[in-house]
């Protein structure tokens, strides 16, 4: 069993923060399939390039994605293969949640 450290809990908090936003979660899931350019991700997810840029900067700052320049463009990918596998496991979870429980006005976890 792995000894849990402050680094572990900080990493989990960053992942939780990233997944707390639908657009960021969709970006991570798209990058789980394959690396991509921001403009392609923006088109695929139906968001503006500015929104995509902001969300990728956030994910990069959290250490979840990394960028690699390719000519005049920059391709993004998950920072670690374990993240892709972890997202796959999370997708397999089935949660039964009262929809009113997590509505912003009714959420007690904030």
Notes on the protein architecture:
With 110 residues, the protein is mainly alpha-helical. The protein has one domain (6-92): Arc Repressor Mutant, subunit A. The chain has helices spanning 6-19, 22-33, 38-45, 49-61, 81-92; strands spanning 65-70, 73-78. It has a two-stranded antiparallel sheet. Strand 1 and strand 2 (73-78) form a beta hairpin. The radius of gyration is 15 Å and the shape is globular. The two termini are 30 Å apart. The model has no long low-confidence stretch (mean pLDDT 89).
Q: Which regions are unreliable across 5 or more consecutive residues at pLDDT < 50?
A: none
Strand content: 5-15%
Output the strand order for the largest sheet: 1-2
Going by CATH, the homologous superfamily would be: Winged helix-like DNA-binding domain superfamily/Winged helix DNA-binding domain
SS content category: mainly alpha
Distance between the termini: 30 Å
Mean pLDDT: 89
CATH fold-level label? Arc Repressor Mutant, subunit A
**CATH architecture verdict:** Orthogonal Bundle
CATH class: Mainly Alpha
Biggest sheet record: 2 strands, antiparallel
Protein name: ArsR family transcriptional regulator
Pfam family, one: HTH_5
GO molecular function, one term: lead ion binding
């Amino acid at each position: 069993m792995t000894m849990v450290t402050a680094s572990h809990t900080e990493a989990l908090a960053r992942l939780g923060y990233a997944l707390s936003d639908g657009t960021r979660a969709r970006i991570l899931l798209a990058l789980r399939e394959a690396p991509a350019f921001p403009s392609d991700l923006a088109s695929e997810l139906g968001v503006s390039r500015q929104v995509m840029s902001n969300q990728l900067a956030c994910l990069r700052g959290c250490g979840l994605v990394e960028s690699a320049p390719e000519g005049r463009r920059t391709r993004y990918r998950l920072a670690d293969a374990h993240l892709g596998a972890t997202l796959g496991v999370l997708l397999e979870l089935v949660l039964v949640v009262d929809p009113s429980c997590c509505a912003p006005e009714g959420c007690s976890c904030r």
